[in-house]
Amino acid sequence: MRRDGSLKTPADKSNWIKAARHFAAQSCEVDIVWPGRYGDLNELLMAEGPDAVRIAIESSEPVTTASIDEATATGTSDDDDDAPGEDDADGGATANTAKAVGNYRVSEGGMEYYARPPNAKTGNWVWIANFTARIKSQIRMDDGVEATHTFEIEATINGRSSTFLVPAAQFGSMNWVLENLGAEAVVYPNQEKRTKVGIQILSGSVTKRSVYTHTGFRLVGDEHVFMHAGGALGANGPVEGIEVQLPAGIENYMLETEGTKIGDKQLREAVEASMRVISVAPYKVTFPLHASAPRAIIGGADYVSCWERVGELVGAALARRARRDAVATALGAILGGDTRESDAILELVDGHVMAAERVRVAHQGQRP
Prior knowledge:
Layout: H1 10-25, E1 30-32, H2 41-48, H3 50-58, E2 61-63, H4 65-74, E3 100-101, E4 104-107, E5 110-115, E6 124-129, E7 132-142, E8 147-157, E9 160-167, H5 168-171, H6 176-181, H7 192-203, E10 207-212, E11 216-220, E12 223-228, E13 231-234, E14 237-238, E15 243-244, H8 265-275, H9 283-298, H10 303-334, H11 339-363
Parallel strand pairs: 7-10, 10-15
Antiparallel strand pairs: 1-2, 3-4, 4-5, 5-6, 7-8, 8-9, 11-12, 12-13, 13-14
């Protein structure tokens, strides 16, 4: 399309071919990319976006000096340029009335590509795969740290349909075909690129989804929500429209929300049970740890400073234990072997040592 809005003419296309012939004559490897009805990739980008540009580039094919000369002489272009006309509908691999999208169509036996030689007025439909596939949705998988993209693909072979996920980064390799469809699935020789592009083009408009794969609080839109296996919880209960899929190991981490309201006895008892956790170790250890959970809602917790303090307590406890041994020896000498008074004094020392031991065990993540 020209800057004045009019479509490009055959003469414009001829200029492209002349440029390709010039580079091929210089022993350069030449790939011709036809941006459809637009004049160049920049216009295609502005009109239809980056996905259309990527598909156009991936549909390019290498050409030789001879093929360019033939195309120039006959006024035709690379076989990717022209979609089949009505007279070509029944030619080639199979005779049917399947609707073509560009140079691709779905047939009963798989997917076909319309191939037109550079010096021919018509072409033929050729098989590219013996199965059909389409991208149902593009899923953004968010684990709280980074996001990856995955395609949900629906494929059919020999009348059997299946749906599976393929990471977007692995889609282009086509290695997922055998893995998900089995040995019957065939991509014909040298047709991997066309099969990939055909699936993308024949899929049409693809639905986009976001799936969260972690638990905990997230800011979604303007609302803080808590992710769990059953979805997301907000200030007013379950939040619709947020999809959560937890990985193996935490897939059952679900908070029951049906019938539970603030003020219910069950909820109050759950909070009280949670508060009892602070009694498993000295308060100077358990209070910071217990408070870090609700603290996560509004910001991070300074665990470094917390555990530095724990380290100081453990060091002090070890020092006290060493002093206890020294006190025991001294008491034995001073009291002349009176074990009752000696044991009473040592019991006080033991109390401090046991408290320090709880701190040490808690620091190691074990139960005292």
